[in-house]
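The records we work with from here on pair a chain with its fold. The integers have meaning only within a learned vocabulary of local backbone shapes. A complete example follows; check for yourself that the lines match position by position.

:::
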Amino acid sequence: MEGRCRTVDLGPPVLHRGSRVTGCALSSCVRLGEQRLDDAEGAEVREIVIVTDDAAALPAEWLEEHREGLAVVGMPVMVDDEALPLGEQKLPSSLLVALAEGRKVTTSRPSPGQFLRVYEQLAAHGYREIVSVHLSAELSGTVSSARIAAQSVDVPVTVIDTRTVAMDQGFGVMAAWEAAGSGADRDEIVAAARGHCGNTVLLYVPSLDQLKRGGRLSPSIARLGTALQIKPLLGLKDGKLAPVEMPRTAAKARSRLVSLAVDALSRNGADPGEENAGSTHVEGAARPEVVIHHLADPDGARELADELVQAYRPDVRITIAEIPAVLAAHVGIGVRAVIVRTAP
């Protein structure tokens, strides 16, 4: 499948109020529908627009279907100090080659000026308020840039530090978009965004080199992991990456990744049971949901998905999505990330 996302058994389609696929990009760093919903006769008016960043790792398919009222700000990625194009759906091959060869790969936050241009363009489109939903301030200066820009815009801008990243952040963005489309006010949208973040995030990286170079992991943990050849499983604590377990081999790490994901699913209100192969989803019950992120390895991600289904239960909803360039630059080749939706 073309693009960055593959979804396994998504279940019945969900119709979103106010959704409409509209034209092309507003600029090189942001994707936004060209036309307001209130331009169409009888369409629902969206007065509040949602802004986020690439780190939310929103699936390409979802983005294609939810362009109206959403802007995604590109986060700069550099290979050997040369900037990669912003806003591309597919990972640049030059980034993958650079990571494989151990070359210099760095990222930077979007500048306040970049955010200011986006906010002003959205105001010019007629949106009356902006809710800007971003990755943890402990991992990036993106929130700071957004807050600086917000002070210079004529419309109210509320900046949310989700204290998380990847599709855990993405779930918050989706909830905010849905709330805005239903006519919710600013406080309700903010509550929706915050309420759908805070899911279980598990990360396996074969090498800590990229995280160490980028300063996204405690130096002491990075040194210990490198020296002992530990393959740590990481999670998020207080908005920062932190070790969950410290397996000594890649095989053990991958096995524990599945086990920890199953534990999180079970804590979310449904037990796998001994006869999981024959279990069925109870009508009306919440369907367990997992997102698996990978880097240029969809086959490996599908194998992990199969393991989760076998270890848990067959009706688990699994979305497979390649991580965006800004996260790939820090985690490197071979990464596996599992987000178990445990927030309501």
Summary: The domain at 200-340 is CATH 3.30.1180.10 (Hypothetical Protein Tm841; Chain: A;domain 3).
